[in-house]
């Protein structure tokens, strides 16, 4: 299998989870019908879901098996269309604005706020699920709720953590991974001197590029907007973050300014870099291939270092499930989502994902996957600790547009590559952000 797109990647744990799904998906027709009883599918209903291409085969296997169980119980056929991470956003926006295409979408971050009037009100469904399963995590709920109305259902946080080669860190003179940004820069500098550099995406990477850029900004106390939504990106804190990013970039493998979400995975697994940030899928990609056994054994994971702000601040990839208002079968769509969030299905999906997808509801926090492997530990609290990309202002059309336009990612890329000075990059980001925050 080539690792050149958002392809299915699974390690030994992912494969084992997929095999184990056989018994877990012996769900009776009566159980499935009960789980979906809150919403009665329309007669003759069929559904089409647009989702992101999975990174872990066990996650897809679990989702598809749950979907088949729903079809067996209700007779509602569900077609699942997969698109690359970068392509989900524009295709969903086209479907929303044209009023045709998929009935549902797994979208990114605050994308639903770009077209809230094109989505079905799912307050009844989301409220019932929250009451049933211990409540939603606040950060995830914020990505799905506009005022008192749910315009989407929170799906998951895809945890992001530092992945590194333990032997290379020690060869660079570090026995323990640094916990602060100064120590982190020193480590990356030493890794470059040893010929085993780090690398983080400065390209338009939906997940990894945004996660890295927001950590750079927030760790130094910067923010795109204040609590009232006033653009505050042009600040001394932001300039400090840019200057730190320039120093880090100097230690990277060449070419990271063009990296998309797949490139850091590819570089790490090819042995070109010894340190990057990713979901747990990177580890399982290595365990899957016998030729990468040495790399897999050497991988360690840890949360991002703490910067001058003095506290951990991380953006995790988040996904929600939305129903387009153009669907002819809104009740069937609600019944499908309701069924997928019942304990039998949700726990199997979380386990199948092998710590890649962090639960949206608090009742599922004790899923055994989180303690089954030390590699999973930095990802276990992603839903609880995530900071929304619109911080410190409210989520909405402005935050969604700013994110979709890669304003923050581009600011750092322009500065580290020398296209603009730090002051010019901040001013340009300020100008662009103000087009959305008006």
Just give the CATH class of the largest domain.
Alpha Beta
What order do the strands of the largest sheet run in, or round the barrel if closed?
Answer: 2-1-3-10-6
Termini separation comes to: 47 Å
Please identify the structural class as seen in this structure: alpha+beta
Largest sheet data: 5 strands, mixed
DSSP helix fraction: 40-55%
Order of helices and strands: HHEHEHEHHEEEEHHHHHEHHEEHHHHHH
How large is the count of helical segments?
A: 19
Q: Count the beta strands.
A: 10
Superfamily (CATH H level) name of the largest domain: Periplasmic binding protein-like II
Mean pLDDT: 92
Annotated CATH architecture of the largest domain: 3-Layer(aba) Sandwich
Number of domains: 2
Radius of gyration: 21 Å
| Contiguous runs where pLDDT drops below 50 for at least 5 residues | 1-29
Strand content: 5-15%
Taken from the alpha-carbon principal axes, the silhouette is: globular
Task: Tell me the CATH topology of the largest domain.
Answer: D-Maltodextrin-Binding Protein, domain 2
């Amino acid at each position: 299998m080539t690792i050149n797109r958002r392809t299915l990647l699974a390690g030994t744990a992912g494969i084992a989870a997929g095999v184990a799904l056989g018994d877990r998906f012996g769900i009776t027709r009566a159980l499935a019908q009960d789980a979906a009883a809150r919403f009665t599918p329309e007669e003759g209903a069929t559904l089409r879901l647009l989702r992101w291409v999975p990174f872990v085969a066990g996650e897809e296997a679990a989702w598809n098996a749950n979907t088949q169980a729903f079809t067996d119980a209700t007779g509602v056929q569900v077609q699942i269309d997969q698109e690359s991470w970068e392509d989900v956003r524009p295709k969903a926006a086209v479907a929303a604005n044209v009023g045709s295409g998929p009935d549902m979408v797994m979208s990114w971050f605050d994308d639903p706020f770009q077209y809230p009037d094109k989505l079905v009100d799912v307050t009844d469904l989301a409220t019932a699920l929250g009451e049933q399963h211990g409540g939603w995590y606040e950060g995830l709920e914020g990505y799905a709720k506009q005022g008192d109305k749910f315009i989407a259902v929170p799906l998951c946080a895809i945890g992001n953590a530092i992945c590194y080669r333990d032997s290379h860190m020690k060869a660079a003179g570090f026995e323990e991974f640094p916990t602060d940004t100064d120590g982190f820069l020193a480590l990356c500098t030493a890794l470059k001197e040893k010929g085993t550099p780090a690398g983080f995406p400065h390209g338009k990477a939906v997940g990894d590029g945004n996660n890295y850029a927001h950590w750079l900004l927030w760790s130094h106390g910067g923010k795109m907007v204040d609590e009232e939504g006033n653009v505050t990106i042009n600040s001394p804190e932001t300039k400090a973050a840019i200057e730190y990013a320039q120093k880090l970039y100097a230690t990277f493998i060449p070419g990271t300014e063009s990296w998309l979400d797949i490139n850091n995975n590819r570089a790490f697994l090819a042995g070109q870099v010894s340190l990057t940030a990713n979901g747990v899928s990177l580890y399982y990609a290595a365990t899957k291939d016998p030729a990468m056994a040495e790399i897999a054994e050497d991988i360690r994971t840890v949360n991002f270092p703490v910067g001058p702000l003095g506290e951990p601040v991380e953006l995790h990839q988040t996904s929600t499930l939305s129903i387009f208002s153009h669907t002819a079968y809104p009740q069937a769509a609600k019944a499908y989502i309701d069924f997928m969030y019942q304990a039998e299905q949700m726990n199997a999906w979380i386990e199948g994902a092998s710590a890649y997808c962090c639960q949206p509801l608090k009742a599922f926090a004790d899923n055994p996957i989180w303690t089954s492997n030390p590699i999973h530990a930095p990802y276990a609290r992603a839903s609880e600790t995530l900071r929304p990309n619109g911080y410190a202002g409210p989520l909405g059309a402005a935050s969604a547009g700013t994110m979709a336009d890669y304003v923050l990612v581009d600011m750092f890329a322009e500065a580290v590559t020398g296209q603009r000075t730090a002051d010019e990059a901040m001013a340009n980001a300020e100008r662009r952000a103000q087009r959305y925050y008006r």
